[in-house]
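Predict the 3D structure for this chain.
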Amino acid sequence: MALPHYDVLIIGGGTAGIMTAAQLRRKKKDLKIGIIDPTKDHWYQPAWTLVAAGAFDMKATRRDEASLIPHGVDHIKEHAATFEPESNTVRTKEGQVYTYGHLVVCPGIQLNIDDLPGLREALATDKVCSNYIDPEKTKRVMSSFKGGTAVFTQPSTPIKCGGAPQKAVYLADEFFRRKGTREETKLVFATPGSVIFGVEPFRFALEDVIRKKNIILKTFYNPVRIDPVKQEVHFKWSKPGDNHCVITEEQGLQEKVEGESTIVMKYDMLHLAPPQSAPDFVRNSPLAYADGPNKGWLEVDIHTLQHKRYPNIFGLGDSAALPTAKTGAAIRKQAPVVVANILQRIKDGALSKEQYSGYSSCPLVTGYGKMLLAEFKYDNVRDSDPLLSKLFDTAKPLWSMWLLKKYMLPWLYWNKMMKGTM
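Done. Predicted structure below.
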């Protein structure tokens, strides 16, 4: 039964919420901790790219969320609705009111399908798919694809697992080769960014993968509309300071320019990450940035993860305004900082010496049996694990890294991270 007041109240029962609760319980068992989250299913989403490629079982990515909540932590199956930080209060859609000593906000990220006109209608067809929504559909779409133009793209908004859209195109290349349809396929990766990856030397390794796989790379392509009837995706040319787009007809790719800055591309298959944001109850709350480049994202100090205006509130995970990739690996480094700071504040009102450096990692699968592990921190500085770096060159696609991705990381997630021991 839920309590009216908690020493630590956590919003979100995903990776960040459960890790934080588990670590707090291990370090201070007498804390009254509650997690507000109505979800029944807990998904290991990093494996969904492999599911789409037929290399992982979708059923193995799901657990009952209730089974993962640490013993002694209350699972409040309600929807957080409003924050009243001046009175240390959270209200839920169900009409309940909870107060807290410390609040941890980590509800993850929300998919905004309707922010991209035509996307919802396009997803109802058998030509358009997204690993972020239904990786099993992606597999079906790729299986029925018989050649033509296959476009893979992503939005200009922050997204969870920023490397996932390009991992999908790398695996699609080999999926089509196995099917015997790659020669009849123009494979396109269109990104709003200026490069395939922002951290060197991983960028150079991935550019080499693009060349070897003969993938058509389009930079400064920001998807703004989909026409599912004509099977066209519209892009806004997003190169800073350049309002006039230029297209090149690689390999007979059908593109046309409308106006000064809109590019229209035909597709026979389309895969994309939908636009994303912090959940509405966060982005419309007093806890989010009200304006500026981080508008709508949780306002926290990037090193302490403490809210900038409410000292007993902390945030981590995908909804936080942190200038690094939104991944489970990042959360693994963020959770101990939040835990240490809360425990120190309970003890004497101060913060601990723990700091978050911006560490994140992208296990970039470049094909069946090949993966490079891109690890970095704030300012796109490489931050590779010292032990792994001694054993492997993680900036190159390796079989050993594929084994890490397919077998070791899922095991560590369920058996270590979710139990607060890693």
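The first strand starts at residue 5 and ends at 11.
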